[in-house]
Amino acid sequence: MAVEQYCRILQVVGYQNSGKTTLMEKVIKECTSLGWDTATIKHHGHHTSLKKEIVLKDSERHEQAGASMTAVEGGGALQLHIKNQTWSLKKLILLYQHFSPDVILVEGFKKESYPKVVLIRGIEDVKLLEKLENIVCVITWKPVQLETRHYPIYNLDDSSDYLNYIIQKLSD
């Protein structure tokens, strides 16, 4: 059976400094306020080993927001000090499945096919949308017109609107 049958999975993606961790904090708080056991996985996109200050910065923010389980993957290492050549998102989700969370929120891993919330700062980031699949919604820093879209677009300031939409999608 597929992992999706056991728990909800949602990715938050965008370019560096687009607000992924801040959005993750908001979604974690919403999920935990509903009583959902929430786990997070962060992809450290730099091709260097994990440094303690990098690992702690975002994973502590996830934990402080209410995540019961956090991991940072990058440079062949997992925050749990387990070394491996690479940690695919599929491997991480299988690992998390043993802890039976209600929700797994993933920061990064753009190329994976799980449902995604995409953050874009402005028109210069729109090209990212062409490279992604399974987009649930887009959150923009500045108004952006998109010709063809099959998902809602929210402004970063309209957090109650997009958080309600994200929670509704996770509840489906």
Short synopsis of the structure:
32% of the residues lie in helices and 24% in strands.
Number of strands: 9
How is the largest sheet built, in terms of strand order? Answer: 5-4-3-2-6-1-7-8-9
The biggest beta sheet reads:
9 strands, mixed
* Alpha-carbon Rg, integer: 15 Å
Structural class computed from helices and strand pairing: alpha/beta
CATH architecture verdict = 3-Layer(aba) Sandwich
**Element string (H = helix, E = strand):** EHEHEEEHEEHEEH
Characteristic terms for this protein:
172 residues; 9 strands; Rossmann fold; 5 helices; 9-stranded mixed sheet; 24% strand; globular; single chain; disordered N terminus; alpha/beta
Tell me what you see in this structure:
The protein is of the alpha/beta class and 172 residues long. It has one domain (6-171): P-loop containing nucleotide triphosphate hydrolases (Rossmann fold). It contains five helices and nine strands; from the N terminus they run E-H-E-H-E-E-E-H-E-E-H-E-E-H. Strands 5-4-3-2-6-1-7-8-9 form a nine-stranded mixed β-sheet, sandwiched between helices. Residues 1-5 have low confidence and may be disordered. This is Molybdopterin-guanine dinucleotide biosynthesis adapter protein. It holds the Pfam family MobB. One of its GO terms (molecular function) is GTP binding. One of its GO terms (biological process) is Mo-molybdopterin cofactor biosynthetic process.
Q: Which helices and strands occur, and which strands form pairs?
A:
Elements: E1 8-14, H1 20-33, E2 38-43, H2 52-65, E3 69-74, E4 77-78, E5 82-83, H3 89-97, E6 103-107, E7 116-120, H4 127-131, E8 135-140, E9 153-155, H5 159-171
Parallel strand pairs: 1-6, 1-7, 2-3, 2-6, 7-8, 8-9
Antiparallel strand pairs: 3-4, 4-5
Helix pairs in contact: 1-2
